[in-house]
Amino acid sequence: MAQNLDAFIAKWAAVGAAERANKDMFLAELCGVLGVAPPNPAMGDAERDTYVFEREARLAHEGGETTIGRIDLYKQGCFILEAKQASGEGSSKLGKAKRGTPAWNILMKEAYGQALGYARSFDRPEPFIIVCDIGHCFDLYATFDGTSNYRPFPNAQASRIFLRDLAEHADTLRRVFEEPLDLDPSRHSMKVTREVAAHLAALAKKLEDDGNNQELVAQFLMRCLFTLFAEDVGLLPEGIFTKALKEQWLPHPAAFPGGVASLWRTMNEGGEVFGVVGKILRFNGGLFASPKALALDKKAWRSCSRRQSATGPTSSPPSSAPCLSVPSIQRSATPSARISPHALTSSAWSGRPSRSRCEPTGTWCKPTSAR
Question: Mean pLDDT across the chain, nearest whole number?
Answer without folding.
Answer: 78
